[in-house]
Amino acid sequence: MRTEDVLAAVATGLWRWDNASGTVSLDGEAARLLGLPAEPVVLPEVAVRSRFHPVDWNEINGIVNLAVAEGTLAEARLRIMDVDGRVMRTVRSRSKPLERWSADGSLDYELIGTIQEIAEPQPGTTAVHTPITGDWRRSREAFLLDAGRALAEARSTAEVLRVAASLSMPGFNPDGLAVFGVAGDRLSVIGHHGHDAGDEGPFTDMTLDTDYPAAEVVRTGRAIYLPTPDDYKRRFPATWPLAQRFDRVSWAFLPLIVAGRTMGAWMAAFKQPASFSPDERSVLTTVARMLAQALQRAGVAESERELTTGLQRSMMPQLGPEIPGMRIAARYVPTGGGLQVGGDWYDMIPLPSGRFALVIGDVQGHDVRAAGLMGQLRIAVRAYASEGHRPDAVLSRASRFLAGLCAPEGAGAEDDSDARSPRFATCLYVECDPKTGTLEVARAGHPDPAVRMADGTVLMRPTAGGLPLGIVPDTDYPTTRFTLEPGETLMLCTDGLIETGGHDLDTGWARLRAVLEGGTHEAGAHEDLEALADLLVQAVHGPSSHHTTGPLADRREDDIAVVLLCREGGGCGCGTAVAHPARPARRTMLTVAQAEPERIAGARRQVRELLHDWADEEQLDAVVLMVSEMVTNVLVHTDGDALLVAEAVGELGERRLRVEVADSSDELPHKRHPGEMASSGRGVLLMEMLADAWGVDPRGEGKSIWFELYEQSKQPDA
After folding, report:
1. Full-prediction pTM beyond 0.70?
2. Which of 277, 406, 418, 503 is the most buried (most CB within 10 A)?
């Protein structure tokens, strides 16, 4: 009996699809199944296409391309339509793609296969129905969307492997997974799931010429499907004993290909039999492609993180040796994006005098160039400081150094404008005497330091300053001196700590002040200074910060650097407790120069911050008024600067406030009687009316005008 007669007896037709010529050859049975006269015929592709359901026809190209790539059969279920668009029957096609090279060198293929009708179950029966375009396709598409989204969000190789292990494929689900990588001519196991620890041992150092499915997949770039143990044993007898002990019955090995390069292989093993139908192979192939892309992205991200960590670690110094009587903590958080490097830095520099210097700065930008300039500038500042220069001289030299790194005038047009464009940097340089707590501060366009006093009160310390480094090479940087008292903590930070989260300088400082005043500072716990540094970073960069954005429209992210310096004493929380018989004094000091009358507003703000918990609000307003009048009189009636010192001592509710304003003039104030329209002359009258006590103390050079006020000392009349 002829083969054609046998196929006709079992209602199976033959067809040949020539992709190059665009024609389809059908025998009589195949023509009948397609709703045509039952006789051999050669038809154009479009005529045959009109007989198939359009959704099913769209599946054919993908199935054929998959079969060509894997060297397997192309199987598909297709619905046959009549001329009125109604489904006549469902057929199954099994064909073998054969590659053919045309005369012009292009690659085409020819499908040779069979077509056979599938009996559909009748309504009311319990026969299993395998949908063609229904639930399976919808669940498959939903699965692939979820898998693609999850793999795209994975940021490390470990996360990618966890996502791959958690994938629940529609209709079939592997219980063992392994990802193989390639290093030279060797195969290694990157990760696995569904196996015990140590099971990967025999597979971790396997040469690519080993008779093992994953090795062959890497060599050929084609998937291997092993539906049964017999298939595995027949094709790979040498490595079958390695796989036999896992009690799996089906295996799929797929190449991980990125940009045409096979970077490894993915194994999916099943304890339940898997036939690896075209739909199942399509799902596995798609997952393998997404997995390869995810592993490639994760590898690049991990390399960048490793590079970033090494670069930043090499640029960020370790804090120096312990300083008797003082503690230091620092944090750096690169949040600027890209390679996660930026221009913020801090440093601690031992000085020849036995003192030490703290430096914090911020180079313009958050890119690699900013990080490079930061490294050079940090080294330059350290070199100038180590030579013994004063704080103002260190910053002046650093400004000239940074300006010199920019392109000279008249640079050629071929120069990279971005790489040679001018950049500036802000910087705060603090020279500290650990014995006395004296701080000398020079500031170049940087935020002022803040001090948390022993009783928890936080003040911003206004300091004189100059332009940022690198703008004008020859710039003067005046120095401000004050003392860090026992139990007080100094905070230096970059603007990223203040403004991150859409905050401006005012609202950002208010947020930090709340953290500093509420931070842990129990005596005897050295870790509390480290905890305070963590709290400051968490407040602006932790999860809760995303729910407390500032008033600005955008949420600008920036690098963050913060340094904390604590002088050990009662209430500081970083050293041995020191017993105090009473609440420690609260003190602030401020210089207002003749050339800076705008600092009078800063003096008023300093006093309000110092007395933020003063019981009587009217008394506080009176203090601010007297301070403003005293400082203004110095600037108006003398040629020197005004030195303001304010100190509050005693327990809450019973404190004594003493405010002194000193100047270099010997002329003593006297009481005047200004008219109603006079704009001055009321300073002494105000102190007589508002202060509990006041006076003038002559000094060797100049004088000091002072007043005292007692908290709630004036009781209301009965």
Report:
1. no
2. 503
